[in-house]
Design a protein that fits this description.
With 387 residues, the protein is mostly helical. It is 35% helix and 4% strand.
């Protein structure tokens, strides 16, 4: 019988059968997801009953949650600046000013301020992702201090067991006691030994991690720089594309076509290329001389007729038909027939002409011809002569 392999999610501790993704938190089990989770881990915790087993996050992740609106001034958080005790976010040093409040006096401040303008307390960012900010253990009144120097090898466990109970400030302490740095070690400071902790002088909570510009402000500046770079790239791309399009249109523009919209024109033929009737007809020569002695007339060479653009020819015929349909001496049937032929010519031009050779008023003429045909049809229906 094959046994089912049981897997424990490294992110939330959910027990489940072997799979690629956790059924509880949805996290992937592949190496990159584990690395990304380690990168985001830290000593800050957000109380979320829906995700009670999630690990803590670093300060940068906390700032991103504030920017996305996932953490408000009434959220319950804990971290190094609260000595890992839960409290409301608007009272947490390093976090409250990003929400618009001073953690010391509740004054309204800006996220980019370096300190409170009312009470003068400094603001900063707690960037150490591997330090919980816990105070050094202190014995309770009913616990005797143990001198480790007198403990032998066998007494090490006993000493360690008695020191485990020293947890420092009670969990029922008030906010004033919680944020009073004189009752414990300064936030963000970790001493290598108890002797160093006793000799250390009080320091600011952000002594080792203070920065002239907070992490949130730096992120906003970097985001603005990225936006400016993107806009510059887009602008350069638009200019290059516009230049290429203008050059392409200029190269495709046919010679002899009018640059302004309107009826297409054809370059006038050279004067010597136009054949006159006198050149095209052979003039008879009157003579009384006998047939054998009459001079022989050389045939006149016919000059080739210039080729006319079919679009221009169709456009000209359409205009002539429209003009003919506008004459008052013609009957309604004749005028309708002219307009139908003109509409056919214009439709042919619209279907075959290129953009460069297309008359600018083609669509307007087609619409006017259709309206005139409808008017003539209505006039014929009601017995009017269409005038």
């Amino acid at each position: 019988m094959t046994k089912t392999k049981v897997l424990i999610c490294p992110y939330c501790g959910e027990t489940q059968a072997s799979a690629e993704r956790c059924r509880g938190c949805g996290g992937l089990f592949e190496p990159l997801s584990r690395q990304a989770t380690h990168n985001a881990m830290g000593p800050w915790f957000l109380r979320d009953p829906g995700k009670p087993f999630h690990p803590g996050c670093n300060y940068e992740t906390l700032v991103r949650m504030i920017d996305r609106g996932q953490l408000s001034k009434y959220s319950i958080v804990r971290g190094p600046t609260t000595k890992q005790f839960w409290t409301v976010a608007k009272h947490v040093p390093g976090v409250s000013h990003l929400l618009g409040y001073c953690h010391n006096c509740d004054a309204s401040v800006d996220a980019g301020d370096h300190g409170c303008h009312v009470c003068g307390v400094p603001f900063g960012a707690y960037l150490d992702y591997n330090h919980l900010g816990l105070p050094a253990p202190q014995p309770l009144p009913w616990e005797a201090e143990i001198d480790r120097s007198d403990c032998g090898p066998g007494d090490a466990d006993v000493g360690l067991g008695r020191r485990v109970g020293a947890v420092g400030i009670s969990g029922f302490a008030t906010d004033d006691e919680l944020f009073d740095s004189s009752k414990g070690q300064p936030w963000g400071q970790l001493h290598s030994s108890e002797a160093e902790a006793e000799d250390a002088t009080p320091a600011s909570v952000f002594e080792d991690h203070a920065s002239p510009v907070t992490t949130a402000l730096r992120r906003r500046v970097e985001s603005q720089h990225r936006t400016i770079r993107t806009l510059v790239i887009v602008l350069v791309a638009v200019v290059v594309i516009s230049a290429i399009a203008a050059l392409t249109i200029g190269l495709r523009k046919p010679v002899g076509v009018a640059s302004t919209p309107g009826a297409p024109t054809v370059a006038a033929p050279a004067q010597d290329a136009v054949a006159t009737p006198s050149m095209q007809r052979q003039q008879p020569v009157a003579s009384d001389a006998p047939p054998g002695q009459r001079p022989v007339t050389e045939p006149v060479e016919q000059t080739a007729t210039p080729v006319v653009d079919p679009i221009v020819a169709a456009y000209t015929r359409a205009r002539q038909l429209i003009a003919s349909a506008g004459r008052k001496d013609r009957t309604a049937e004749q005028r309708s027939a002219d307009l139908v032929r003109a509409l056919g010519e214009l439709t042919t031009i619209a279907d075959t002409a290129s953009d460069a050779n297309r008359p600018g008023d083609l669509d307007t003429m087609i619409e006017q011809v259709k309206q005139e045909l409808e008017r003539l049809d209505l006039a014929g229906f009601f017995g009017d002569d269409g005038g």
